Amino acid sequence: MPLSLGNLPNLATLDLHDNSLSGSIPLSFGNLTNLDILNLPHNSLSGSIPSEMGNLKSLYGLGLSFNKLSGSIPSFLGNLTKLTILYLSDNLLFGSIPCEIGNLRYLFYLELGDNKLSGSIPHSLGNLTNLATLYLFTNLLSGSIPSEIGNLNSLSDLGLSENELSGSIPYSFGNLTNMIVLSIYSNALSGAIPKEYGNLVKLTLLVLSYNQLRGPIPDLRNLTRLARVHLDRNHLTGTLDVSANNITGILPPEIGDSPQLKVLDLSLNHIVGEIPSELGKLRCFEEMHGLVYIDISYNKLHGPIPNSAAFKHALMEALQGNKGLCGDIKGFPSLLTFDRKIAYEEIVRATNDFDEEHCIGTGGQGSVYRAELPSGEIVAVKKFHSPLLSEMTCQQEFLNEVKSLTEIRHRNIVKFYGFCSHARHSFIVYEYLEMGSLAMILSNATSAEELGWTQRMNVIKGVADALSYLHNDCFPPIVHRDISSKNVLLDLEYEAHVSDFGISKSLKPDSSNWTELAGTIGYVAPELAYTMKVTEKSDVYSFGVLALEAIKGKHPRDFISSICSTSSNLDRTLDEILDPRLPAPSCNIRDKLISIMEVAISCLDENPDSRPTMQKVSQLLNI
Question: Please, which domain of life does this record's source organism belong to (predicted)?
């Protein structure tokens, strides 16, 4: 840390973020009495916050997050009454939160998360009426949540998750009408969810999971901006009505942990995937004996309808508006099954014993066929070249793909139906995607013109979401290892579905994860030429190539090195690689394409450690 800076008493701003600074904060910083902003995040600063900093009475911004600071939060910070920003998150601070923090009446942002703070939340925080963000998550805070926090009418983002808080949720939270994100999961909260939560009309995210909440779930239909709600792992009863919102994602199997739930209305949302049937030994909806009414109409659900009384007695109107739901309910097709001999014979007949006229693609592992079953269902069948799977490589690819597709469920990953290992033919059955592969679409002038800029950006985002799921939401993480345009399939709505998991690999924590070189030429990360260790960053590189290919309309090849070297002039670079078959993008679309290209270039960094994670990429592509 440069001690000489403390000899500049007229210094107004000191911003040294992400500079690999280490050691303790110099005591001489207390001489910077005219300092307005002190910002030192993302360093390796250690030791305690020196008392000399209590002299900085002009300070209105203090950022010390993402360091290794220890000791307690000093009470003298409450004397810095001009502070509007106080960031101390992601350190090693311990002890209680000083009540003097409540003196900072001008404070907009208070972030103390990811430390080791203990004790109760001070009631004095209710004095911070200008506060917009309050982050106290991932600490050891205990006791009840002060009802005074309900006085913070400007609060839009409240994070109290992953603590040891107990008692009930204050009814006063219903006054927080500017709240956008409310997260209090992983505590020991009890009691009911206050019905006043229906007043939080700006709320987009509500996370109350992993507590001990009981009682009825309030009517949340007035929350028209609500995008996600997580209430699992509680003991809630009564009615859950979140209809006519913008809720996305899948139905969590943990919803079965509320066996006393009587009414569940999820209609008119954007919920995707299958209706969960089990979680471990829990039969989810089939164990929810108290459930007497359910409405899941007008979502994006597919697959079998659970075998429960609520579904069996449901009206057709409560299930309609979902593409692909099936089951033994009047008005729905018979459930699609692939069961030993019957399934094998159905597939063989549907493909005329795998006749070439039904073949829609051939690869190194096998050929893919289009099969229309007697029920009218159309599926894709991947038949492996080696019928008995006697070859070690072929057998491993078959098992890899079956294992991966059995364990994963995501809207942007091809849906798995079943498999068969037979003396004559071994094959995998999965959903049929009407538009074929991205590679095939881009190679055809007519179909490429129909795949406009908005659809191409959606394809890129879909692949990023799928890879983020594989890397971060699967345990152990799964590396696809063959991301390419031929392995991205599109449906009629141009939604992307990642396919072909034959060479995928699970990253086991107790393994070195070494393997042979694999993948498609032109998409393989450069480090795999000299190391055989599999990491998620190889998928990141392949994604970068794919993203540029979707913008350019063909594989970027020799352009990759030149693009990376001229990344400072992204606007001109975009003009050079835009697919000439499409009309020039609008200003808004152009800005989004530049953002995507910038992310893609970062994925192509020669140093794997410098590439972003797919989780970060997915977040950056929310444009």
Answer: Eukaryota
Q: What range defines the domain where residue 452 resides? A: 436-620
Last residue of a domain, one of 391, 415, 431: 431
Residue 177: how many other CB atoms lie within 10 Å: 12
Separation of alpha carbons 460 and 585, rounded Å:
16
Q: Which of 415, 431, 447 is the last residue of a domain?
A: 431
Same-domain check for residues 553 and 615: yes
The tens digit of pLDDT for each residue in 197-222 reads: 888 888 877 888 778 887 777 777 77
Structure-derived torsion over alpha carbons of residues 482, 485, 487, 488, reported in degrees to the nearest 10: 130
Count of domains for the chain: 2
Structure token pair of residue 350 = 């549907």
**What CA–CA distance (Å, rounded) separates 25 from 2?**
10
Under the banding of pLDDT at 50, 70 and 90, the label for residue 388 is very low
Amino acid at 434: E
Spell out a b/e string for 559-595, using b for 16 or more CB atoms within 10 Å of the CB, else e: ebeebbeeeeebeebbeebbbeebeebeeeebebbbe
Which one-letter DSSP state was computed for residue 413?
Answer: B
Q: What is the pLDDT of residues 345-356, one digit of tens each?
A: 788 889 998 898
Residue type, 224: T
Give exposure, 212-230, as e/b (b: 16+ Cβ within 10 Å): ebbbbbbbbeebeebbebb
* Exposed / middle / buried, residue 10 (Cβ in 10 Å: 0-12, 13-18, 19+): exposed
Respond yes or no: is residue 18 known to be catalytic.
Answer: no
Residue whose C-alpha is closest to residue 124's, from 149, 102, 96: 102
Q: Which of 265, 482, 539, 605 is catalytic?
A: 482
The pLDDT tens digits for 22-62 are 999 988 888 888 899 899 998 999 999 999 999 999 999 99
Q: Does residue 584 fall inside a structural domain?
A: yes
Compute and round to an integer the Cα radius of gyration of the chain: 28
Residue 445 lies in a domain: yes
| CATH number of domain containing 575 | 1.10.510.10
Spatial distance between the Cα atoms of 623 and 600, rounded to a whole number of angstroms: 14
What is the model's pLDDT at position 569? 73
**Are 374 and 469 in the same domain?**
no
pTM, two decimal places: 0.52
Q: Which amino acid is at 466?
A: A
Is 490 domain-assigned? yes
